[in-house]
Amino acid sequence: MASVVELLPKEYGYVVIVLVLYCFLNFYMAFLVGKARKKYKVFYPTLYASESENKDAKLFNCVQRGHQNSLEMMPMFFMLMALGGLNHPCICTALGVVYTVSRYFYFTGYSTGEPENRLKIGKYSLLALFALMFCNISAGCALLKQ
Questions:
Q1: Which chain regions cross the lipid bilayer (predicted)?
Q2: If exposure means fewest CB atoms within 10 Å of the residue's CB, which of 57, 79, 92, 97 is most exposed?
């Protein structure tokens, strides 16, 4: 009996590596949110700072929101990578790298305290996500043709 790994395309290993790289990016963002909590004095369990109580609320909230948005998008990204990568591992790997790098710039841009900075390079993460959706549609159609 063949193991599941033997049934996957060899290039699927790249998909796995990109997913792990995104996990490291998530840890990095979480670390910076923790540093911002100390710097701007926003203590747990407070998720967002109140501008009426903290003069640095916008700065902290931008760091927090950059990470939070990345967490909100992570399940969709992981699912699209994992499933689309079964049929299109190299394309999904390239799109996953674009997505991960774009999310880094989304976060760092947001963390400047000017929310519009998140979109300078961060906007490409949405393009990569939509392209991953097309890879999944293609994979689904290929399954239906069998």
A1: 12-33, 77-101, 121-144
A2: 79
pLDDT in tens, 63-113: 999 999 999 999 999 999 999 999 999 999 999 999 999 999 999 999 999
Per DSSP, 114 falls in state -
What one-character DSSP code corresponds to residue 49? Answer: -
From residue 125, give the alpha-carbon distance in Å to each of 3, 23, 74, 105, 106: 34, 16, 11, 9, 8
The answer to whether residues 122 and 105 touch, using CB atoms and an 8 Å cutoff, is yes
- Please state, in angstroms and rounded to a whole number, the distance separating the CA atoms of residues 91 and 99: 12
Q: How far apart are the first and last CA of the chain?
A: 22
Backbone angles phi, psi at 106, to 5 degrees: -60, -50
Give the count of beta carbons closer than 10 Å to the beta carbon of residue 35: 11
Q: Which amino acid is at 68?
A: Q
The answer to whether 29 and 104 are in contact (CB under 8 A) is no
User: Is the Cα torsion angle 52, 55, 59, 63 positive or negative in sign?
Assistant: negative
Cα–Cα–Cα angle for 28, 34, 37, rounded to 5 degrees:
145
